[in-house]
Amino acid sequence: MPTRKPSDVIVVGAGVVGAACAYYAAQAGLSVTVVDRGSVAGGTTGAGEGNLLVSDKEPGPELELALLANTLWRELADVLPPHVEYEAKGGLVVASGESGMRALRDFAARQEKAGVTTQEVPGDRLHDLEPHLAPGLAGGFLYPQDSQVMPAHAAAQLLHAAGDRVRLRLGEEVTGILTGAAGEIRGVRTAAGELHAPYVVNAAGTWGGALAELAGVHLPVLPRRGFVLVTEPLPRVVRHKVYAADYVADVASGSAALQTSAVVEGTPAGPVLIGASRERVGFDRTLSIEVLRRLAAGATGLFPVLGTVRAMRTYPGFRPYLPDHLPAIGPDPRVHGLLHACGHEGAGIGLAPVTGQIIARCLTSGELPLDIDPFRPDRFTAPEPAPAPGSDPAP
Amino acid sequence: MTASPSEPYDLVVVGAGSAGLAGAVTAAELGLSVALLDSTTQSGGQFYRHPAPALGAVRPEALHHDWSAFSDLRRRLAASTVTHLTGHHVWSVVRESGESGAAAGETGETWAVHAITGADGTEEQPVRITARALLLATGAYERQLPFPGWTLPGVVGAGGAQAMLKSGLVLPGRRIVVAGSGPLLLAVASSLAAAGARVPAVVEAAGYLRYARSPRALVTNPAKAAEALVHGAALLRHRVRVLPGSAVTEVHGTDRVEAVTVSRLDGDWTPVPGTGRRIACDALAVGHGLVPQIELATAVGCATRALPDGTLGLALDDLQETSVAGLWAAGETGGVGGAELARTEGELAGRAIAARLRGRRADPDPGRGVGPGRVGELRRRRDRMRAFADVMSAAHAPGPGWPAWLEDETDVCRCEEVTAGRVREAVTELGARDARTVKLLTRAGMGWCQGRMCGTAVACLAARGGTPEPPAERRPFAVPVPLATLAALDERATEQNL
Amino acid sequence: MARTPADLVGAQPDPPFEITFDGRSVTALPGQTVAAALWGAGILAWRTTREGGRPRGAFCGIGQCYDCLATVNGEPNRRACLVPARPGDAITTQEGHGHDRLAV
C-alpha cells in the first residue's frame, strides 16, 4: 500500500467546517489533506439553510463566536466567488402578542450589551420591512448582522480558494487513527491506505463522535434532526430571515421531543426555505407528515401569501449537537495531535470561519481570537462502560 | 366498500394502468374492499391512454395494440365493487404504527395514502385514505438524454407525442423525426404516421443486432415478436426509414425546430465525426426508454435493484411484495416490461394480497417451484416476460460515449437551465462525486421536475466516464403540494374513506 | 391512409369552443387539455424560462416534466398537459416563475 507524501495536517470532513479549517490552515502556510468518505458538503452542510445568525444566540461563548464569524464571513464574501450567495439581509424576529414582545425586548437588551446590533420594530412598521407578513403581529426585532450563504458552495468554494496547499481525498472513509509510540497522532488509515500527518482535525460533524471513538476519546456528538421545506421558485417574497419568537427557546432546548417554530427565508435562486424542526430520533430519514404539517402551518401563519405556493421538496438534516449545545473546538489534551472542530449543532455554517481560524491558530501557535476554554473537547465525562450511549456509528 | 368512515380499505391501489387495474379487480373479485387511485380522469394508464368521451372516438383501438385486453379490464372494473378515485395525485404514502413484529395486514397496521386532487393537483383540500395493504402501480416516465437544441419548442418526448396523440388527437408537427433508443420508438413512429404525420426517420442509438445475442428470450415471447412485426410492417407501409446506431446530435432552429442533424454512433454511442447529415422536420419526438416511477416506495425505504439499462426498479419477491411488508408493486415499478407483463403482475399481486389479508398462502406449496394453479401460471408468465424485458433493457442501455455530443452550453437540467459546462465544473473543480452534490452545487435536479428529466445525464456526468450510479429516484413529494394543503393535514379533517 | 388523428379514430366530437392564447382566439375540442388545444392550433410554446427567457411548451406530455407550465385564467404554473380546456379560458404566456405580482 503506497504511503503518500505526508501533510502538515489532515482534516477529516469536507463539510463547511472542514473546508474552513483547510482554508485557514492553508492561508497560514500549512499543507492540508482533506479526507471525506463522500462528496464535498455531503453531510449536514448540504442539508443546511446557510444561516449566519447572531439573533438566536444568548449572550455567552457561542454568541462571541458568532460575532467573530460574522466579521470573517464579510471578509470571505469579498474573496470567494459570487456562487456562495452571501447576503447580509438581516434577521427579523416577530412576536404575536405583547408578552412575546416583552421577552424579545429583554433578550435584545442583553444581546446589545454583548455587541449585537438590534432594532425594535413596532407592529405597524413590520410591513415596511416585510410587506407580505400576516396582519396583527405585535412587533419584532431586526438584527442587521444576520446573514445567509449557500452552504454547499460555501464549502466547495472555500476548498477551491484554499489553492494548491490543500489536497482533497473524497470517497475515502477513515477507518482508523494512526498513533506513535507515545500515543501521538501519526495520521489516519482509510480504505485506500494510510495518510500521514502529525495533526488530525476532527471535522466530521454529526459523525464526529464516531471519529473521536476511533482515536479512543469520548465526545458525545448526537444528531438532532431537522426538516427543511423548499417551495417552487418565487420572486423576492421574503426579504429577511423571518422567524417567530419561540425559535430561540427551541434552539436552546435540550428536549428530545419534536419542536417546531416558523422560520422563513427567500434565496437568490428563487425558492423559499421553511424551517425549523428539532427532534432527537437518531439518523432516521423517514418523512414525518406531522413535521411537514407544522412547518407549513407556521410558514403560512407568518406569510399567508405562501398558501397557494407549492412545496417541491423536503429533506432532513442531522445537526451535530453536544449536550451543552456548544461545539468542541481545539486540541484534545487526551491525544497529542488530535484537534476537534465539530458539534456546532445548527450553527455550523455560520461558525465555520471562526472555527477554521481557531484551528489554524492552534496549529501554528498563533494568537487565539477568544478564550476557547468553553469549547474544550474533554469537558464531557465518559459514562461507564466506555462507548457513549446512543452514539450512532458512522454509516 | 368499508363498513364505517374511519375503517381502512383492505387495499389501496395507486395507479389505474394495466397493473393497477388488474390488481384492483382481482383483489375485489376475491372479496377485498379496494380503492383505486389515479391522477387522471380515466383508467388505462399511459399504455391505454385514450381520448376523453367528449372527443367521441369511435375507434380508439386504432391507436393501440391489444385494446381488447384493456376493454376487458375496464368491463371488470365497472362490474366490481372497486372505488375508483380519479383526479387523485398521491404525494406520499406513510406506514402508520400497528402491532410490532408481524407483517402488515396481519395486524392492526395501516397505510395512509396522502393525495391532492384536481386535474393537476391544485385543489387545496388534502385527502388521506387508509388501507391495510398497498399496491403501487405507478408506471414509468420517459428517460431523456440532453443534446444541443433539445429545449427548443417542437422537441417533445416520444412518449409525450404518443400521449398527446392518444388523448388529445393532436400532433406536434407535420414532419416528425423520432429518435432516441428503445422499443417504444417504433410504436410511436407507427402511430404518428398512421395519424397523418410524415416521419422521415426513426433514429435509434442502439444497433438492433444486440437482440440477436439472446434469441431464446425472443423465441419464447411470440407476442412481443408479433407486436414488433406489426410496427415494422406499419413503418414499411408509411415508408419510414429506421437508422440504427445513430443519434440526433443537434437540433436547428431559433424558436422552434426546423431541422435536426443525425450522426452515426460507434458502439459506445460516441458520435463519429463527419457523419452528420441534416434532416428537415418541424418536430422531434425523442426518448431513451422508460424509468420506473418509484419515489413513493423509496420514501418508505423499499429496496431497489439496478436494472440492465441503468435505471432502478423496486426489488420484489416472487409474489410482488416489496422489501417493506404490506407494500406490493406491479408493472413498470419493478422494471419496464410492457402492458401484458403489468397485467400479469397486477393479478399476481392482487391474489397475493387477498391471501395475506385472509391469512392464507397464495402459493400452497413453495417447495414445488412456482406451484400449481393460477398463481403458478402467473408466475411462469411473469418470469418469462421479465427475462425478455431484461434483454430489451440491456440492449438500450445508454453507451458511455453519449456525453461527447454535449456542448458546454447545452442545458442538462431543463427546469433550472443548468448547462453541461457547469455540471462538468462542479465535478472537476468543486469536488462533486455524485448526483446529489452536483445538484447542491449547480441546482441541476432541484427544479419543478425534481430531476426526472436530467437525472440520468447528471449521474453519467458525475461518474466522469465510469459506471454511473442509477439516479436514486428519491422525491419525498411525489408531486408538489400547496403549503396550505400541508398546513391543513389535520387527521380528523381529512379522513376520506368511504 | 388517415389524414388526421381524428380521422384515424373516427372522432365525432361534441361542438368545439373558443379559448384565448395571449388574447388570440384558439378553437378547442371538448375533452382536450389546454396543451392539446394549443398544439391543435400550431402553438408549441407558452412559457419563457426564468434565467434565459427561452420559449417552452409541452415536452413529456404526461405531467412529469413541468415544462408546459402556463398561466391559466391568471393562475400561474398550471400543467397545460393535464388541465382540461374550458370554454372561455384565457391562457397567457407565463414569464419565468409566473409570480411577479408577489415580488416585494
From TrEMBL, chain A:
The keyword Oxidoreductase applies. Residues 384-395 have a biased composition (Pro residues). Residues 8-361 form the FAD dependent oxidoreductase domain. GO terms for cellular component: cytoplasm. Keywords: Oxidoreductase. GO terms for molecular function: oxidoreductase activity. Residues 374-395 are annotated as: Disordered. This is Oxidoreductase.
From TrEMBL, chain B:
One of its GO terms (molecular function) is oxidoreductase activity. Keywords: Oxidoreductase. It comes from the Bacteria. The keyword Oxidoreductase applies. It holds the Pfam family Pyr_redox_2. Residues 9-337 form the FAD/NAD(P)-binding domain. This is Oxidase. It comes from Streptomyces gardneri.
TrEMBL record, chain C:
Signal peptide: none annotated. Keywords: Oxidoreductase. The keyword Oxidoreductase applies. GO terms for molecular function: iron-sulfur cluster binding; oxidoreductase activity. InterPro entries: 2Fe-2S-bd_N, 2Fe-2S_ferredoxin-like_sf. This is Proline dehydrogenase. It comes from Streptomyces gardneri.
